[in-house]
Amino acid sequence: MDGAVLHHGEFYGIRDAARATRGYSLSIKTAHEAISVERHMHEDAHFVLLLDGHYLSSARGAGHLYAEPALIYNPAGTTHRDTFPERSGRFLGISLADDCIAEVAALGPTVEQPERIWDPAALALANQIAGEIVGEPSDFTLECRCLELVSTLIRNLRDERRPPCWLRTAREQLHDRAYEQLTVGEIAGATGVHPVHLARAFRRFYGCSPGDYVRRIRVERAALLIRSTPAPLAQVAQASGFVDQSHMTRAFTRNMRITPGAYRQRHA
């Protein structure tokens, strides 16, 4: 394989805090623009919780941009070149030892590619772990939290309500093509289902309409450009897939509870 191999508990970045407990290695790291990240492979399975910034991963073969909060599970052998396309970003990494990985494999379906975990309970638990790493929790407490997180992952993987493959494919297409002028019919046709069925299933599993999802992706893209470039807001709107600046301002304010201009001032 081309590129580096990262062993148990290893992540690129500057270590801010770290703990280890039976079966798990935990660390909070800051990724900085001065740190070069090459394409690499992780020997172990691990969770990544985005704490600040935007996270871009090539693990699925195409760029996927995430904004906090985002919790991702990468199975053992994940190969990618993940970056933070801003000046910096912070994340929590939780690496699983071999026996923990075997438990996941035994209790849940085979995980062959990275999974973004949408479960609010899992997100809350991962954030709790991040807060406790910098505190004074016992090793026993941290181990229990990690076991709960793995249990949540397994429950979600085994849940019959888990999105079917065609719906996950539709969501990935919406993610990748969010900056284009799309129709639900196009995505439905590409996945072989009726647009009404797609819209109904999307809301059931992801809690929003396909249109809401696309707007959220566009807002995340706009936030990244506003924070990391001096581009005029009109150009940001165009690059993010909005019709014009006023369209972006309405969507941005509704999702972020702040106007694009005020957001830029906050991150200046």
What is the β-strand count?
11
Helix- and strand-based class?
A: alpha+beta
CATH class of the largest domain: Mainly Beta
Radius of gyration, in angstroms, nearest whole number: 19 Å
CATH superfamily of the largest domain: Regulatory protein AraC
**CATH-assigned fold name of the largest domain:** Jelly Rolls
The assigned CATH architecture of the largest domain is Sandwich
N→C terminal distance: 41 Å
Stretches where pLDDT is under 50 for at least 5 consecutive residues are none
Task: Walk me through this protein's architecture.
This protein is about 45% helix and about 20% strand. The protein is α+β, with helices and mostly antiparallel strands and about 270 residues long. It has 2 domains: about 5-160, Regulatory protein AraC (Jelly Rolls, Sandwich), CATH 2.60.120; about 165-265, Arc Repressor Mutant, subunit A (Orthogonal Bundle), CATH 1.10.10.60. A 6-stranded antiparallel β-sheet has the order 2-3-10-5-8-11. Strands 1-4-9 form a 3-stranded mixed β-sheet, with no helix packed on it. A hairpin with a 6-residue loop joins strand 6 and strand 7. The longest helix is centred in the middle third of the chain and has 20 residues, at about 140-160. The N and C termini lie far apart (about 40 Å).
